[in-house]
Amino acid sequence: MNKKIIIAVVATLIIAGGAGFYGGMLYGQSSSANSRADFNRQGGFAAGMGQRGNGAPQNGGFSGGEIIKKDNNSITVKLNNGSSQIVLFSDTTKVTKSAEGSAVDLIVGKQVTITGSKNQDGSLTAQSIQIRPATPAK
Fold it and tell me: Among 46-60, 83-97, 106-120, which stretch is predicted with the lowest mean pLDDT?
């Protein structure tokens, strides 16, 4: 009779452990899905990088998109949301690519990421501009 009780207890523990493990897996999947949904609602990766999810700068600091216009001390960048932003730069603005660059490398059609300070008129004064490789079409 003692063997039957021990077998019943062990079987109960195995079933309870398996049920707990399965329940934990379901909870983890649901928690992960909720975290992803919250992340996307808050703007995804861009929000963590100082941008709203639509590509517009949030309190300055970071922007990125395609150069659509350039003159001697500014570029106009088309943002992910279709709007544009003027970015001011000077000879002291760091322009980077896989090798050190300069203002000559800021070409219409190139993808760039800009860090700097937001001005009262909505433009951005760049501290650095990084030229990014073209992203492949989806």
Answer: 46-60
What is the total count of domains within the chain?
2
**8 A C-beta contact, residue 90 and residue 75:** no
Which of these, 84, 85, 111, 106, lies nearest to 94 by C-alpha position? 106
Residue 49 located in a structural domain: no
| Predicted local distance difference test score (pLDDT) of residue 46 | 43
Question: 35: domain range?
Answer: 2-41
Residue 50 included in any domain? no
Judge residue 51's burial from the number of C-beta atoms within 10 Å of its C-beta, 0-12 exposed, 13-18 middle, 19 or more buried: buried
What pairing do the DSSP bridges indicate for beta strands 111-118 and 62-70?
antiparallel
- Alpha-carbon distance of 27 to 126, in angstroms, equals 45
Cβ atoms within 10 Å of 36's Cβ, excluding its own:
11
Tell me the CATH number at 100: 2.40.50.140
Mean residue pLDDT of the chain comes to 74
Q: Is residue 48 domain-resident?
A: no
